[in-house]
Design a protein that fits this description.
- By secondary structure, the chain is an alpha/beta fold.
- The protein contains nine helices and eleven strands.
- β7, α5 and β8 form a beta-alpha-beta unit.
- α1 crosses α9.
């Protein structure tokens, strides 16, 4: 049995064409099914639904043989116990710094003042500001990031941005692009040794179907 870990939503939807290219079809809709383990048209392949941030954990510890996770999630988690053979070029967005429209970010950074930054992505934020030589106090939040500058909790946020519409709606502006984000295929190292042939076939099928 090969177990693939996916999260609901955009990653799931954009992984379906790649699975189809490998001859795999998920037989139930995760949005309507209450099951957390979904069957496929192949008896030897199943899909487990987990939180996006938990995909690397399931793969690392063998709860899944392989999974699809965003670059942001993988950087925050680390890649111990996993291979990352493919950038699938799906679920694309960017990691950016955003502030209130009336906050002078450039001056604050140049003067070397200490910034309060709210984010879920503390590893990425810490590294980014360290590379710039900017001192930051990181405030970890798990949602509604845009509220932090509006309430005075933080000077800036580091978050994923797709269209930027949520930032604009809350009178925030994107002031710095940290990195481009897309979803990657990750594979458990032990699984790749024990189930080499079927996993290699899946990886190769995914590789040929990656959107350009």
């Amino acid at each position: 049995m090969i177990t693939l870990a996916l999260s609901k939503g955009r990653i799931f939807e954009e992984t379906l064409p790649l699975l189809k290219a490998a001859g795999i079809e998920v037989l139930e809709d995760p949005e309507t099914s209450r099951k957390l383990i979904l069957p496929t048209n192949r008896e030897d392949v199943r899909v487990v639904l987990v939180r996006a941030s938990d995909v690397p954990t399931y793969v690392q510890y063998g709860g899944a043989d392989l999974g699809v996770a965003g670059r942001d999630v993988l950087i925050e988690h680390g890649l111990a116990g996993m291979y990352q053979p493919l950038d699938l070029n799906i679920a694309k967005c960017r990691m950016s710094v955003a502030v209130r429209a009336d906050f002078d970010y450039e001056s604050a950074v140049k003067q070397g003042s200490r910034l309060r930054v709210a984010t879920k992505y503390t590893q990425i934020a810490r590294q980014h500001f360290a590379d710039k030589g900017v001192h930051v106090d990181l405030i970890k939040l798990y949602g509604s990031m845009e509220l932090a500058p509006l309430t005075g909790l933080a000077d800036a946020i580091v978050d994923l941005v797709s269209t930027g519409s949520t930032l604009r709606a809350n009178k925030l502006v994107e002031v710095e692009r940290i990195m481009d984000i897309s979803s990657r295929l990750v594979v458990n190292q032990a699984s790749l040794k024990l189930k080499r042939a079927p996993l290699r076939a899946l990886i190769d099928a995914f590789a040929t179907a990656i959107p350009q």
